């Protein structure tokens, strides 16, 4: 189960990395991005939502750490339910 949670945390890091590549590739800031891209960024990177809601900038390193921790917590929940469902069968 530890490895699966580590995979969830790694997925969180990859998501932030993909968004950073997207942001650096476009000429306009992320706030001026298309509504679909902005909505997907807020859903997949919850740390960005904190900065947007409280009106302060969040550095890339804090977004990486926070997103990895949030994805790891989601992984713990999902893997716990998956394990319980597997034992119930």
TL;DR of this structure?
This protein has 89 residues and is mainly α. Helix content is 81%, strand content 0%. The protein has one domain (2-88).
Give the strand content: under 5%
The structure class reads mainly alpha
Largest sheet, in brief, is: none
Judging from the principal axes of the Cα atoms, what is the shape?
A: elongated
Helix content: over 70%
Q: N- to C-terminal separation? A: 19 Å
Q: Count of DSSP helices? A: 4
Topology, number of strands: 0
Q: For the CA atoms, what is the radius of gyration?
A: 15 Å
| SSE topology string | HHHH
| Low-confidence residue ranges | none
Number of domains: 1
Mean pLDDT: 83
Q: If you had to describe this structure to a student in words, what would you say it looks like?
A:
The structure is a single chain. Helix 1 runs antiparallel to helix 4 (60-88) and helix 2 (35-44) packs across helix 3 (46-54). With 89 residues, the protein is an all-alpha fold. The model has no long low-confidence stretch (mean pLDDT 83). The chain contains four helices and no strands. The chain has one domain (2-88). The longest helix has 29 residues, at 60-88. The protein is 81% helix and 0% strand.
């Amino acid at each position: 189960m530890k490895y699966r949670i580590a995979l969830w945390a790694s997925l969180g890091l990859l998501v932030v990395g993909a968004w950073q590549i997207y942001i650096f590739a476009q000429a306009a800031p992320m706030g001026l991005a298309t509504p679909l891209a902005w909505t997907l960024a807020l859903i997949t990177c919850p740390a960005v939502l904190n900065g947007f809601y409280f009106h302060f900038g969040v550095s890339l390193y804090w977004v990486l750490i926070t997103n990895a921790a949030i994805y790891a917590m989601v992984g713990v929940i999902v893997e716990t339910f998956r394990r319980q469902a597997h034992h119930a069968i």
